[in-house]
Design brief:
This protein has 226 residues and is mostly helical. Helices cover 47% and strands 0% of the residues. The relative contact order is 0.13. The structure holds a DNA duplex (11 and 11 nucleotides). Belongs to the POU transcription factor family. Class-4 subfamily.
DNA sequence: ATGCATGAGTA
DNA sequence: ACTCATGCATA
C-alpha cells in the first residue's frame, strides 16, 4: 500500500494558502515571492525533468548533485550545514525564506520548522534527500556572497483569528501511546472508541496516530527506513 | 524544538 | 482514509 514511492517526491508543491482558514500575515511577502516563480506548477518537481532524462538509462546515473541515500552522509551534511549556517549568522527562518531567492524552479521558501527538522534529522529519509541539494545550493550561495541584505518580517495587520493548537493532556497522551504500541493503525471504529474513552475528538485522535507513524519514519527517530 | 494540523496525491 | 511534505502556534 505504500511502496513504490521511493522516487524523488514532490516537496514544493504546496500552495500554502490558508485563505479562508487563518488569513493572517500571508498574502504580502509570500504571495509576491511565489508569484515570481518561473514555474507556477501543479506537479512541479525539479527532479521531474531529470527523471525523464534517466528513463532510458541504466540503473544508475551520475550527474548533478549527489543522490546518495546514506543516512550517515545525511547526518554529516546536516551537521556541517548547521555549523556553517550559524557561522554565517543566519537563523533557520532566514534560510527558509532565502531559499525562494535561489530561484530554483519549483522551489519556494520553507519554514523555520522544516529547516530545524532537516538539521535535526527529524524528516523522512526521502525528504532529507530531496532537501539536501537545495540547502547545499543555498549554503554555497550564501557563503559565496557573505554580504547581502536581510528581508525582514513584515509582520503587520491585526485582527484575523489564528489557529489554535489543541493540546492533549499527559494522561491521555500516555493512553494513546499505549494503544499505539499494540496497534499503530487502528481502524476508524477503534479510533472512535479511543476518542470517546479519552474524551477527545475523533479527528484529533486520528491525526495523532498519523503523526506518530510519521514520526517513527524520521531519519532521526529510531528508524530502519532504507 | 516540537505538537497538532492541512492538503495534495494516492491506493 | 492514508501517506508525505510542510507549517502555524507554542513550549
Amino acid at each position: 500500500m505504500m511502496s513504490m514511492n521511493s522516487k524523488q517526491p514532490h516537496f514544493a508543491m504546496h500552495p500554502t494558502l490558508p485563505e479562508h482558514k487563518y488569513p493572517s500575515l500571508h498574502s504580502s511577502s509570500e504571495a509576491i515571492r511565489r508569484a515570481c516563480l518561473p514555474t507556477p506548477p501543479l506537479q512541479s518537481n525539479i527532479f521531474a525533468s531529470l527523471d525523464e532524462t534517466l528513463l532510458g538509462l541504466p540503473a544508475h546515473m551520475g550527474c548533478m548533485s549527489d543522490v546518495d541515500a546514506d543516512p550517515r552522509d545525511l547526518e554529516a551534511f546536516a551537521e556541517r550545514f548547521k555549523q556553517r549556517r550559524i557561522k554565517l549568522g543566519v537563523t533557520q527562518a532566514d534560510v527558509g525564506s532565502a531559499l525562494a531567492n535561489l530561484k530554483i524552479p519549483g522551489v519556494g521558501s520553507l519554514s523555520q520548522s522544516t529547516i530545524c527538522r532537516f538539521e535535526s534529522l527529524t524528516l523522512s529519509h526521502n525528504n532529507m534527500i530531496a532537501l539536501k541539494p537545495i540547502l547545499q545550493a543555498w549554503l554555497e550561495e550564501a557563503e559565496g556572497a557573505q554580504r547581502e541584505k536581510m528581508n525582514k518580517p513584515e509582520l503587520f495587520n491585526g485582527g484575523e483569528k489564528k489557529r489554535k493548537r489543541t493540546s492533549i493532556a499527559a494522561p491521555e497522551k500516555r493512553s494513546l501511546e499505549a494503544y499505539f504500541a499494540v496497534q499503530p493503525r487502528p481502524s476508524s471504529e477503534k479510533i472512535a472508541a479511543i476518542a470517546e474513552k479519552l474524551d477527545l475528538k475523533k479527528n484529533v485522535v486520528r491525526v495523532w496516530f498519523c503523526n506518530q507513524r510519521q514520526k517513527q519514519k524520521s531519519v532521526g527517530g529510531c528508524a530502519i527506513n532504507y
